[in-house]
Amino acid sequence: MLQRFVSRHPIWTLVIAIIVAGLVWLIFAPWSEGLEDAIGRKKVFLNAVFGGITLGALYFLVAAGFTLIFGLMRNVNLAHGSLYLLGGYLGFEVSEATGSWLLAFPVVFVVVALLGLLLQHQVFRRMEGEELRQTMVTIGLSVVLADIMLWIWGGQSYTILTPDILSGPIELPVISSIRDDTGAITWFRFPAVRIAILIAAIVIGIAMWLVLNRSRLGMLIRAGVDDREMLAASGVRIQYVFLAVFAFGAGLAGMGGIVGGTFQSLTPGEDTRFLLASLVVVIVGGMGSIPGAAIGAIIIGLSEQLGLVYAPTYSVVFTFLIMAVVLAFRPQGLLGAGR
Amino acid sequence: MLGPRDTAARLGSVSSGNALELRGVTKMFGALAAISDITMSVRPGERRAVLGSNGAGKTTLFNCVTGDFLPTSGTIRLFGEDVTAFPAYERIRRGLRRTYQISLLFGGLTVADNVYLACRGVSRGRFSLLRPRRGDVLVARAAELIEAVHLTAWRETLVANLSYGQQRQLEIALALAGAPRFILFDEPAAGLSPTERGELVSILTGLPGHIGFIIIEHDMDVALRVAESVTMMHNGRIFKEGTPQEIENDPEVQELYLGDGSHAHA
Amino acid sequence: MAVTDQPPPRTAVEPGPWNLIERVHPAWWAVAFILLVMPLLANDFWLFQVFGWTFILGMIALSMMFLAGYGGMVSLIQMTVAAMGGYMVAILGTSGVAAISQGLPWWLYIPAAVLIAAAFGTLVGALAVRTEGIYTIMITLAIASAFFYFTRQNYGLFNGYSGFNLVVPPMLFGVDWRGAVPFYYLTLGCAVIAYAAVVYVSRSPFGLALQGVRDNPRRMAALGYSVNAHRIAAYTFASVIAAVGGILLVWQNAQISPGTAGIPAVIDILVIAVVGGLKRPIGPFIGALIYVVLRTFSPDVLLAFGLSGERFKLVIGIGFLLIVFFSPDGVLGLWEKWQNRKRHDPLKGDR
After folding, report:
1. CB B175 within 8 A of CB B98
2. Going along chain A, which residue ranges are E strands?
3. Are strands B237-242 and A185-191 parallel, antiparallel or unpaired?
4. Model ipTM value
5. What does the alpha-carbon distance between residue B105 and residue B10 come to, in Å, rounded to a whole number?
6. Cα of C210 to nearest chain A Cα, Å
7. Tell me: the pLDDT tens digits for C259-273?
8. What residues in B contact C203, CB-CB < 8 Å?
9. Where residue A179 falls among pLDDT bands split at 50, 70, 90?
């Protein structure tokens, strides 16, 4: 697929290659004084870039489930943000009760996945094919869930404590600055937990890609994304595939909630924020595409963080502009299937 | 609207020059040639049937003529003008119309509204926010068309509530809107009962003399009753051309198509 | 077979004034009468807070219904367009934020606000129509969210978190239009005009073409219509209605802030439109009345049951879910089913 893109769009490939090379150089090469005078200290830049990438990792975790659910079942799950927040709150409770951060992940995954299973089986299955009605139901669910969560956990913000092994910064092989007089190198330091999440997101992303492209289940899912009726007509118990995908997507969003609760915090309103982020990531990256979600997530994460640091009033505008540009020139998303 | 079916007299009275002319038209989908090297011409007012089994390339041919597909090679001329690269709406403006194998109708609107929309489509004022006045010429024209396809009694019926046969009749009315000069009928008889097929034949033969058409049909019976000339396709190529009698009696055609019992008398 | 006599075509004929009285169902006349004399029956709270708000929300939901019911496009940008109109009135007119408000005269800032909001709505439409129907919800929701976050962060134009206060209607003809009775008639009048406009346009060539685009865009293209141009034009028409609603809203609250067009408010409009019914223009107003009554009085009911008054959101959410489950056409759908059951005579074998 990459070779096809390169051969068909040589100019775009060149542009993207230049941008990526430029970014890599900015990250790894030591900055001259003139550069630092012009755009600020390298450490600030590195914080923004790594912050953006790790934020992108979080967005990817949440958006991947969203894009799968839409891609396969044509269900715009607008309650996805609520599942994220619910997962976060539950993760908080679990880690407080057991003192283990890691234990929260499987527990939350299972609980939220079960909820997703229940929704798909009892609710969405009865509205097969009525996309608009399904979307309305997800909206109603998001309203109800949001209020129930407000009732139980109230309006204050919760943070999940990072486990000790991951707390504190880690040194990365990236030069932060070099002292002029001694030539001593200061390496860039970044919170370890965020790097851990980034690695986990990459692992999960690769695992998802492998399952989708190398396993029988993945083949069924991809066939269903292409043509749902055909898949059902060929005798596959498509309902089981739907259940599996919805449950998985929901569970993933729930785990994302734990991550977000650790990085940032959990408050009412975060559900809307992550729903919006999922929407934008998927619009930009393309519906039903996991690599698209990854690329979209990185772009949006970076634009948000870089925007926050260098042009705080307008960071929202950047995200919106990216989305508008993609919509204007490639409405199906960067890696979306052409319609 | 009922004109004499004397072919020579009628065709002689309309302009010379071909209504539709295809030269070497080929359409490839990847490595598959759906149609190859199609060369045919249809005169203004002529009634042609294009026959062939499934996969012969008939619908692909139509799609190239209407502009839904761009031919891989070859030229298409409409009333002398090269329209090979023209988008669909340009061909519509030049008098080309088409019906669809699966009726594409506006289910939420009445029969009258459907035909009115078709009449509006090729005229001005499509964005008009003003309702048409009493005696509006397009409204009257729509009523005429509904009469031409025998649907006047169902003018106010929602299309979703029409029977299948009635929907097919409405399809034809939509194709007649504006001032068509040439129509492509894509399997208009598909799924119709024998009585409905009789209706269809009477509607088609009752069309004004200056409107030429090509009809694709599986049902040889309907096709041979309304056509003056026949083009048979096989595997994407033109296999044989001639009058209905010639085709009906041709031994090669009989072996390929009539032998499997698809020729059924009502 | 064909019927030989030809009744004059009734479908697309402009009604004359003298047969108006016969054509309109008596129930409508009763409703109209009650609405006209309402100030004699109801107190200021009901006039200003309940009915005023109903008409305003009804108009904004009407603009959504126009796009969804006639155009087949569910757009969540209508509340944002309304807020844009309200913001422009605050920015171009007078408000408590003297640093930003331009203080233009009313006959300038009102049309300008409607124009700017309509232009915004058209622009969003242009972005949204190029994709499939279900994407419209996502895209318009994303843009609505972006607007919310932007107005919250931008202090130069939108005054950020605080927004604008002291935004009141101009004193025209010596009337304080924010008084209960004048405001009631103002909102009633605007709502009636908006409703009449939608009903009229729905059977104009533009309206019919829009419905054709809804039912079968491929055929419309084959008939020579530009499908996207019609859809975008529909956004423009709907945005004008929403903009007027937004101006009335900012006058009613005498203030506007980012929360006016926050996601909860955006979803509330969808709830209103769906609950009322997306198929006919009266639906949004029915939905708005239900919403406003629930919103205004359910906190008291909840307290009576020992729950916090804030749980009205839950009540509305559950009510919405029930409607979507059992009657996706909303209250209008329930009404129609009931009518059909009365009319259906099993002995005659009616359909």
Report:
1. yes
2. 169-178, 185-191
3. unpaired
4. 0.81
5. 33
6. 19
7. 999 988 999 999 999
8. 131
9. low
**Nearest CB neighbour to C1, from listed B122, B150, B155:** B150
Task: Mark out chain C residues that contact chain B at CB-CB < 8 A.
Answer: 1-3, 6, 8-14, 200-201, 203-209, 211-212, 214-216, 218-226, 229-230, 233, 351
pTM, two decimals, is 0.82
Count other C-beta atoms under 10 Å from residue A45's C-beta: 20
Cβ separation C316–A143 shorter than 8 A: yes
Kindly state the DSSP code that residue A158 receives in the 8-state scheme.
Answer: B
**Is C57:C244 a contact under the CB 8 Å cutoff?**
no
Quote the CA–CA distance of C147 and A78 in Å, as a whole number.
18
Partners of residue C224 in chain B, C-beta under 8 Å: 89, 92-93, 121-122, 178
Which of B100, B118, B180 lies closest to C224 in space, CA to CA?
B118
For residue A322, the tally of other CB atoms under 10 A from its CB is: 17
Query: Chains that contact B by 3+ CB pairs under 8 Å?
Result: C
Whether B contacts A, i.e. 3 or more CB pairs less than 8 A apart, is no
C150 and A317 within 8 Å at the Cβ level: the answer is: yes
Confidence (pLDDT) at C223: 81
Which residue reads 């958006």 in tokens? A63
Three-state SS at A232: helix
Cα–Cα distance between C135 and C132 in angstroms, integer?
A: 6
d(C-alpha A187, C-alpha C31), whole Å:
76
In C, minimum Cα distance to B149 occurs at C2
C-alpha Rg value of chain A to the nearest Å: 21
Show the tokens assigned to A174: 């990236």
Could you give the 3-state DSSP secondary structure of residue C216?
Answer: coil
Paired tokens of C282:
């009266």
Beta bridge partner(s), residue B50: B216, B231
Beta bridge partners of B32: B29
Q: How confident is the model at residue A215 (pLDDT cuts 50, 70, 90)?
A: confident
3-state secondary structure B23-51: EEEEEEECCEEEEEEEEEEECCCCEEEEE
